[in-house]
Amino acid sequence: MAKIPAPLINQKYPVRCDGSELTLKVHIGNGQMSEGRYYVRPNMKSPDTLNGQIESGKLIALGKDTDLHGQRLSILVTVAAANGKDTQVQFILSGGLNDFNFTLKTEAGNQGDVVIYEAYFRFTKS
Amino acid sequence: MKKIFLICIFSGLSAGYLLAQDDECTLELLAAPATPAATMLGFSPAEIDKPRDVSDFLVSVANSGALSQLPANYAVEIAPAWLFAGNKISYSSFSGNKLSDNLWQGLTLSAAVRSNDIDTFTQMAFGLKTSLLRGRGFSGDVAKRLALAQEALRDFTDTLNYRLKNDERYNQLLDDGLNEEAEAYRIKFFNNFNSEKTEMLEEQLHDIRLTRTGFKLDLTAGIVQDFPGGRFEQRTVSRAGVWLSGGYEGEKGISFLFMTRYLHSAGYQEETYSTFDGGARFIYAPAESKFTASGEAIYRKPLQSEALPASWRATLNVEYKFRPAMSLNFSWGRNFDGIVTRNGNVIAVLSVFSSFGNKRKIS
Fold it and tell me: How far is C-alpha B8 from the chain's CA centre?
């Protein structure tokens, strides 16, 4: 079984720091089997301030931007290519200065391979 | 000009086929040309189509005559949900049997062309099909394997999440925004990463075919336009119909299907007539075999015209899948008009299929 890395998303996500609610939605498409995790931390050695599992299409309330500012959101989605070889994941992050809405598509080499999607967003003050 | 166009299409499809020979796709999604449009034009191997999951995009070519000739029958089918909104099809909605998911994910639009160079008569058909019911779920063995695979993937993800979370070097690269270095680091990281259940995941998903069992039901509609003399301005609608087909698909590759169809046709001298068809089909398609055998019988009853007698059609079909996306079909039987047919020579239909989009092992 090959582990196929999808392109990495690692970027800043400017927030207004006015108490806006930040939300995350992840769509895992093509009818593929998947698992997803997310967590928020100020830095690597800190405990998680928030974590949980990702369900395709389900909105996750991350909290107010005033609380999240200076922290990093980490998202890991693994997609097992059971239904053909095409996989795609759409990341929608809302509530900041601009919405982030991006779809990554990666083809597995063979049926049964696992495609690994990772996205990291550092909440910075705009 | 038309010849050149057909040569281009056929060459393209053949090249696509040659490139796709090593592809792992199975014929379930490329089976046919059982698109509604092809059925309306009468070059589908069987009248009663097996309800099936769909391919994003399917082009099929049927050659019923001499193999050295260019095929005269073409069909194209698209599944809008998979082609344009695949990102919104989650695993739970795909594996379930909810009506709204069935309708949208099972929706296909098809078009087919049948032409005859001798009297330059061209027919074009358009079809629409959707799934009302698509079975109670995946077959017992497949469901068991998927559950084990899901468990293994959960373990894989938790372990990977923990390791990534606690990898100091990787997190430093991410925090510093050194994406190229982070990308290179993670590739090495993944190559060396394994969870306890990686082997189980591989074992369960290897060569899995997502076979649905239970009661399935499709709703289909189609319309045919004739172009006598190959002239666009002389087009007429010659046939339109709507039909329900469904049946039970068992775990051992045995299916019983039925079909009820209303057809409205234009006859000679402006006369029109409607017919009601009712029929059944039995299919034996062992999971690991390249052979599929089926038999179908359809009774046709005219609804208005008393001049037309009731008629019936019965055929036996044998299909041999000799390459991925390529099969030989042989049909023998009695058509509605009472003529014993053999759709060509000993091999009745040789179809060359090429498909773009994802190729899924489902049926």
Answer: 24
Is residue A100 within 8 Å of A62, Cβ to Cβ? no
Query: What does the block give as tokens for B47?
Result: 């009248």
Between A and B, how many CB-CB pairs are < 8 A? 142
Of the candidates B292, B349, B239, the one whose C-alpha atom is nearest the C-alpha of residue B26 is B292
Chain A positions touching B153 (Cβ under 8 A) are 33-35, 78, 80, 114
Mark yes or no for CB contact A10/B87 under 8 Å. no
Are B50 and B283 within 8 A, CB to CB?
yes
Lowest-confidence range among B23-32, B126-135, B320-329?
Answer: B23-32
Could you give the count of Cα atoms lying within 13 Å of B158 in the half-sphere of its Cβ? 10
Give B188-206 as a DSSP string: HHHHT---TTHHHHHHHHT
3-state percent helix, strand, coil for chain B, nearest multiple of 5: 30, 40, 35
Q: Cα(B164)–Cα(B142) distance, rounded to whole angstroms?
A: 32
What is the per-residue pLDDT across B32-87, written as a single tens digit (0 to 9) for each? 446 788 788 777 767 777 766 666 666 666 655 545 555 567 788 888 998 888 88
Q: Is A75 on the interface with B (CB under 8 A)?
A: no
The 8-class DSSP code of residue A28 comes to E
Instruction: Determine the distance in angstroms separating the CA of A121 from the nearest CA of chain B, rounded to an integer.
Output: 10
Q: Does residue A59 sit at the B interface (CB-CB below 8 Å)?
A: no
CB contact under 8 A, A30 and B358: yes
Rg (CA), chain B: 24
Q: Which residue of B has its CA nearest to A88?
A: B87
Is pLDDT of B101 > 70?
Answer: yes
CA distance B137 to B216: 10
| Structural contact between residues B61 and B353, judged by C-beta atoms closer than 8 angstroms | yes
